[in-house]
Amino acid sequence: MFVPSLTVLIQAILLVGGLWWCKEMWDRFPADLKRVKESQDKAEKGTILFLWALTAGVAFLVVTFTIGLVRAILSAF
User: Fold this and answer.
1) What pLDDT digit, counting tens, does each position of 59-68 carry?
2) pLDDT digits (tens, 9 = 90+) for 23-71
3) Whole-angstrom Cα distance, residue 16 to residue 27?
4) What is the DSSP letter of 77?
5) DSSP assignment of 46-75
């Protein structure tokens, strides 16, 4: 098996999923911003803001993991 352990496989899947989530949300940004500004529905605004807060958390975790991965690779040299 190419993957050294199940943990590495799960981390790789989560990283790819996090990157995909951020890309999809970034594509939605202009439409979501317009909907937040124009909508009178508080539930819709709350849902959009919740999704963007979740996206900020996912982006933070992706960046943190990526920095740790790059540091580990660079420390090998």
Assistant:
1) 999 999 999 9
2) 999 999 999 999 999 999 999 999 999 999 999 999 999 999 999 999 9
3) 17
4) -
5) HHHHHHHHHHHHHHHHHHHHHHHHHHHHHH
